[in-house]
Amino acid sequence: MDNIEKVKPVIPLDYYLESLDKLNSMGVKFITYDDLEFENDYDFENGYPDEFKRWNQKIKERGDKNIYVLIQHDTDAGFQSTIALSKHEKKLNAVASIMTFARWQGSNESGEIESYPISFNELHNLKSEGFMIGYHCNAIHTSGFNEDFVYENFYKDILILKEFNISFFSPHGGKVLDGIGNVSFDYMKDIRNGGYKKFYSDEDTHKYFKKLRWIHNKFSCKFNGYYSDGGLKRRLKINQENTNLNEWIKNMQPGKRYRMLIHPQYYGRGELEQFETDLEWYNRLF
Questions:
Q1: What's the total number of domains in the chain?
Q2: Is residue 1 a part of any domain in this protein?
Q3: pTM (2 d.p.)
Q4: Are 233 and 173 in contact (CB under 8 A)?
Q5: β-strand 103-104 against 97-100: which pairing, if any?
C-alpha cells in the first residue's frame, strides 16, 4: 500500500493555528471526553443527560466563567496530517480527542483490509500529553458491506486499539451503500445484549467492551455549541456561511462548553486545493 496521503488540504494550516491562538487569548480551557462527568451515565439515546447536569452543577458551584472547548479529530484519510496537526496543537497547549481507525481498505487496489497506517508510537506520545484516543468506527467498510460481519469487526477493532484504553467511539461517515453506512448499526444495543460473547469468552474483555460509549455522529453528549468542518469541500462549493471557524468562535460564552470537529486532512501548507466559492472569508485565505 502507498502510505503517502493523496488528499490535498483545502485550508491553510495557519488559519487553524490562528484560531487556536485566538482561543488561547480568550483563556479557553481545552478538554477531552475523558474530562467529562459521565460516571454511570450510559444514556446515549438522550445525550447523556446526567453527565451534562453534573458538569453544569460543578460549573455553577465554582462560579466558573471559563470557556471549555473539546476538539475532536476524525482521522479519515488523514493518518499523517492527524499526527502533524496534533503536534502543532500540543505546542499551543491544546489537546484533542483523536478518533482513529484500527484497519481500513486504504489505497490498495485489491480491496484487502489492512492495518491503518497511523503511528501508534506517536499516538502514545500524544496520549501522554493529555490527548485522548478513541475508535472511529468503520466496521461496515472493513466488512465489505456484508452486515453479517459488522459487529465482529467492531469488537476486533476495539481490541486492536486496546493499548490506548478505548472508552469512546464515533462512527465514520464515508461511503454508504443502499442507504447502509457505519452509523446504521446499533452497537450500543449489541453491547448491552452481550453480543461480544459470541466472539470472546474472557470476562476482562467483556468488562472492557461494556464501558464503551457512542459519543458522536447520531448519538452524542451535550454541548452549548458545535462547530464541524465535516463535508467541508461540498459546503464550500455551495457557499455555506457556517464553515468559518473564526467567526463561530466569536459566539462563545463564559461558563459554557463547546465542541469543534476538525478533520486534519483539510489543513496544510504548500500545495492546497482551492475551491471556487462566493465565501469571502475563504477567498481571503489565498
A1: 1
A2: no
A3: 0.96
A4: no
A5: unpaired
